[in-house]
């Protein structure tokens, strides 16, 4: 198996000479980093959608499998996951939007991940509440 390809050397961002010496301080360019908040938001949003589908299943199954009680318990979990995804997505967008201080500061990327996590969190939260409503309607009728 051949060795992995070497990463191309990054050019220096700037070189500041040290007065009175033939030396200088080199500031290297720091590559952008994917925001961990954005990744966490997407993971939490997807988990919230999966839990909300479980809420819908318990709601449709009716009283045979716990019905509204089981749906209510999983609704809390889905709502917490959706809320966490929304908050993390908003914080990630704020972190990514913030201008980076002068070099060699870290820049964050992942705006698309943050928006996707935000949307998945909202969908998971709404589907959880819809599943609880379906469970209550089936339980009453």
Word description of this protein:
The protein is mainly α and 141 residues long. The protein is built from three helices and four strands. The strands form two sheets. It has a two-stranded antiparallel ribbon with strand order 1-2. Helix 1 (36-61) packs parallel to helix 3. It is elongated and about 85 Å long. The model has no long low-confidence stretch (mean pLDDT 90).
Secondary structure: elements and pairs:
Blueprint: E1 12-17, E2 24-28, E3 33-34, H1 36-61, H2 67-97, E4 108-109, H3 111-140
Parallel strand pairs: 3-4
Antiparallel strand pairs: 1-2
Helix pairs in contact: 1-2, 1-3, 2-3
Q: How would you state the average pLDDT, rounded? A: 90
Number of helices: 3
The main β sheet shows up as: 2 strands, antiparallel
H/E element string? EEEHHEH
**Strands ordered across the widest β-sheet:** 1-2
Summarize the structure.
Helix content is 62%, strand content 11%.
Describe this protein with a few key phrases:
mainly alpha, two-stranded parallel ribbon, 4 strands
């Amino acid at each position: 198996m051949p060795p992995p390809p070497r990463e191309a050397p990054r050019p220096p961002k700037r070189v500041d000479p040290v007065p009175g010496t033939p030396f200088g301080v080199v500031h290297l360019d720091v590559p952008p980093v994917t925001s961990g908040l954005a990744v966490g938001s997407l993971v939490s949003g997807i988990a919230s959608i999966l839990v909300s589908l479980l809420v819908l299943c318990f709601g449709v199954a009716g009283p045979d499998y716990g019905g509204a009680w089981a749906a209510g318990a999983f609704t809390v979990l889905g709502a917490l996951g959706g809320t966490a995804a929304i908050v993390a997505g908003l914080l990630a967008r704020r972190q990514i939007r913030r201008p980076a201080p002068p070099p060699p500061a870290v820049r964050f990327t992942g705006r698309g991940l943050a928006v996707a996590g935000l949307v998945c969190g909202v969908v998971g939260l709404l589907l959880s509440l819809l599943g609880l409503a379906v469970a209550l309607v089936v339980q009453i009728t």
